[in-house]
Amino acid sequence: MQLSAQAADYLERLAAELDVPPGRYEQAEDRYLSVANWLGRDASTLKDFSPDVYVQGSFRLGTPIRPVNGEEHYDIDLVCELGLSMDTLSQQDLKERFGYEIQLYAEAHGMKKGMSEGRRCWTLEYADDAQFHLDALPALPDGARMLGLLGDTEADPRWVQTAIAITDNEHPRYLDVSRDWPRSNPKGYTNWFRSRMTESFKSRREGMALNIRANVEDIPDYKVKTPLQQAVQILKRHRDIMFADDPDDKPISIIITTLAGLSYNNEAHVGHAVLAILDRMASHIEDRAGVTWIANPSDPSENFADRWQKYPRRKTMFYRWLAQAQADFAELAAHTGRDGLATVAARLLGSSVATAAKSNGGAVPRLPFGRDISAFWARHKQQAPWPQVRQGTVSLQEAWIVRNGYRRERFRSNGPDLPKHAKLTFKAKTDVPAPYQVFWQVVNEGPEAAAVSGGLRGGFDAGTVERGAITHQEATLYAGSHTIECFIVKDGYLVARSGAYIVNIG
């Protein structure tokens, strides 16, 4: 399917409008840390069992979306993993011991609605303006048992070893002291999901850090949105709109997320990611002896589509949704006018986000800080071919532009647009002792560069050192936001790199 430049830009805006505001991530974190502190306090009956409290679900994966109704009511799924053994207590024992502390927490924090019991967890209702409700699930470590159960299957031990045993009051052994417990693996699943977007996450995080002159470690994970996460958010909203009157049969989020993760192939932008994921989704659905199977990557013995056997209409509705999504986003991708894009998007994703994305006429708000520089995660950007051993530093200290033969002027990274057909000079400085080799990587982006053979670049050009000075010259040929970076190689090892300098050309 073809994707117009206008549709690609509009889908980026839609993704930003669908995302949960950063403050909600921070409030969610405050909520689960508050519970963790409570369970670890001196008076806690669970303190001696090293409670490990963490979030699971969409907030952990970075894929929550604003509610359709605009009321911003969010569900937080919390796990409390306790250092106990299933050989010494039943599921009921664990759930009741955990419930006792959760009840005390609700009373101590003045929760008028208190808590309620679900099949697997306890639910806390917050009455403040954040409009959260929190599902708290008690669990025990179960990685060793899972590794033994899965044996020589296709299970990846990187994901399996974080498995947990959970409670379920409908389980036949719920009342018994038994090793037959339901299982789950939110950490393993998250690690798998993140492994599917490692390259784009790293590039975007580095780009954000450079954009605000910060250390990469200073950028919280939740502020980095990859095309995979954005695609999942868009597809979940499309599903919610399509099944607004049939919630029981709508495809569940874990199926959409898993198939999207399996289908994602490091597409650099959300528009391309959505189209590619929809095209590949069905190829990852298996048939095992007549049973439709979508395996949990962190537990291949678990079938996320197990309910399709009992409720065949859900399988029918999934394929109906997939076909509809393919047709809908193909239609959106072909549009070039802002009004047409907004009209189609209103039908697919809701009028509020469609209007907001249309009204947002400035820079694509994908990055919370500054301008979005797609060259950071361009597919044609090559990885450094040398093994890396840090032995020094190199920095791009100065950059000059010469316009129409006039005197040169300095320009800063990610500054105002430079004119075309000007000459650029970059000067780098390193503390690596000579001898060494210098390489430069230029990554161009935008339709003008893409239209020219070799215009996008992305490889490594050998540089020179003259009288101890490291300089490099370029020209402003294509409109867009591009990057240049200096690499120092010594004895076959990459010993220093400058970080990208951003060149905006109008």
Automatic annotation (TrEMBL):
Entries under CDD domains matching the protein: NT_2-5OAS_ClassI-CCAase
Entries under InterPro entries matching the protein: AGS_C, DncV-like_NTFase, NT_2-5OAS_ClassI-CCAase
Organism: Thiobacillus sedimenti
Official protein name in the record: Cyclic GMP-AMP synthase
Keyword annotations: Antiviral defense, ATP-binding, Magnesium, Metal-binding, Nucleotide metabolism, Nucleotide-binding, Nucleotidyltransferase, Transferase
Residue runs in coiled coils: none
Pfam family, one: AGS_C
Ranges for domain Adenylyl/Guanylyl and SMODS C-terminal sensor: 380-505
Residue span, Cyclic GMP-AMP synthase DncV-like nucleotidyltransferase domain: 51-135
Transmembrane segments: none
Catalytic activity, reaction form: GTP + ATP = 3',3'-cGAMP + 2 diphosphate
Keyword Transferase in annotation: yes
